[in-house]
Amino acid sequence: MKSRNTRNTGNTGNTAIRTGKRKLLIMILVILLCLGAVVYRLADRYLIEHVEVVVTDDTAGTAGTGSTGTTTAAATTADVNATSDDWSYSSDDIQVKIDQVQTGSGSDQITYFVADVVLKDAGSLRSAFADNSFGTNITEDTSVIASANNAIFAINGDYYGFREDGVIIRNGTVYRDDPVRDAMALFGDGTMQTYDEEEVSSSELLAEGVTNTLSFGPILIQDGKIVSDFSSVKIDNNFGNRSIQDANPRTAIGMIAPNHYVFVVVDGRKEGYSRGMTLAELADVMEGLGAAEAYNLDGGGSSTMYFMGRVVNNPLGKNQERGVSDILYIKE
User: Fold this and answer.
1) Most confident of the following: 38-47, 49-58, 61-70, 243-252
2) Is residue 41 pLDDT above 80, yes or no?
3) Whole-angstrom Cα distance, residue 185 to residue 168?
4) What is d(CA 116, CA 81) in angstroms, rounded to the nearest whole number?
5) Is residue 115 within a helix (H) or strand (E), and if so which, with residue range?
6) Banded pLDDT at 83 (limits 50, 70, 90)
7) Is the entire prediction scored with pTM above 0.85?
8) What 3-state DSSP class applies to 51?
9) Residues 6+ apart with CB under 8 A from 79
10) What 3-state DSSP class applies to 148?
11) What number of other Cβ atoms are within 10 A of residue 115's Cβ?
12) How far apart are CA 171 and CA 255, in angstroms?
């Protein structure tokens, strides 16, 4: 009798242990499934490519037609009987002059590049997507996109592919229409306008002859005046974003007069070479260059200036580009 009770007690204990193990295993599986779902959502949002539109443009260059970007640019120069050197380009239709500027010293030194561009035809200023595709998480280096499109000059764009909102019109085509922030528009008459996406519709812009819109910001100069307060500017709340108020690498575009543009790329995050600029400092530079309108584009590791087959600046002080989703470029 006593032996039977002992066995029953043992069986009950074993059953309880097995039940506990099953519960533990189920809990572990649930946790793993939840973690997997979170990891997938993050990868889907920030890593996995989502192609919405493959862009075909008969006027765009074909990737791989030249052995290097330099070869392609040189061929373009020869075709239009243009002259160029490491810092300038001149033809009947396009004038580009690039200057490297350094201010300050030691830990306060800033190095930036200014490209003064005068065009005969606004159609020479174009935009291009990474891999000729519109969507999210599609990236290529600025130099790769520029070379594939036979660009003479290029800068990184607004990295639209990191977000899912904004008004994105490129080369006259509306790709996204979700107004949320201050933006910049380029028009077929060679003018540039900064505006509030929630106050001006894409249909109005198209009726006025818009060619490209970029959605990043903030506006630096509007109607000839510096926007006074950058302290509360917010562009995104996405994972991995840095504060944009601090000194950082920068990219900006400004218009001095119709078909007369100025592009500025600021290096940063390398002590003794360049600390970067604050937004207020960048606005001051644009004002000093005579910009009537000026707009901040994607910066940080994206900030890149390309000219005649080479990267002019020093991205992040490492001579290493970061892939971007889009560029603005100049071509014959």
Assistant:
1) 243-252
2) no
3) 10
4) 21
5) strand 110-119
6) very high
7) no
8) strand
9) 332
10) helix
11) 24
12) 18
Q: Answer for the pair 110, 276: CB distance below 8 angstroms, yes or no.
A: yes
Answer for the pair 96, 152: CB distance below 8 angstroms, yes or no: yes
pLDDT value of residue 139? 97
C-alpha–C-alpha distance, residues 189 and 203, integer Å: 17
HSE-up (13 A, CA, CB side) for residue 206: 13
Residue-level pLDDT at 43: 60
**Count of Cβ atoms closer than 10 Å to residue 310 Cβ:** 13
Contact 253, 261 (CB under 8 A): yes
pLDDT at 64 over 50: no
Question: Is-contact 276 267, C-beta < 8 A?
Answer: yes
**Helix (H/G/I), strand (E/B), else coil: 308:** coil
Q: Which amino acid is at 81?
A: N
**Cα 314 from chain centre:** 16
Sequential DSSP letters for 54-71: E---TTS--TTSSSSHHH
Kindly report, residue by residue over 122-135, the tens digit of the pLDDT.
999 999 999 999 99
| DSSP for 240-287, written as a single string | TPPPSSSSB-EEEEEEEETTEEEEEEE--SBTTTB--B-HHHHHHHHH
Q: Which two tokens stand for residue 291?
A: 């910009």
Assigned token pair, 276: 């970067």
- Separation of alpha carbons 31 and 246, rounded Å: 39
Q: What is the pLDDT of residues 189-216, one digit of tens each?
A: 999 999 999 999 999 999 999 999 999 9
Three-class secondary structure of residue 162 per DSSP: helix
pLDDT over 90 (residue 18): no
- In terms of Cα–Cα distance, which of 48, 50, 49 is closest to 39? 48
Residue 231 near residue 314, CB atoms below 8 Å: no
The continuous run of DSSP H or E covering 111 comes out as strand 110-119
Q: Is 288 exposed, middle or buried (0-12, 13-18, 19+ CB in 10 A)?
A: exposed
For residue 96, give the nearest of 113, 117, 78 by alpha carbon: 117
Within 8 A by CB and 6+ apart from 90, the residues are 82, 83, 84, 96
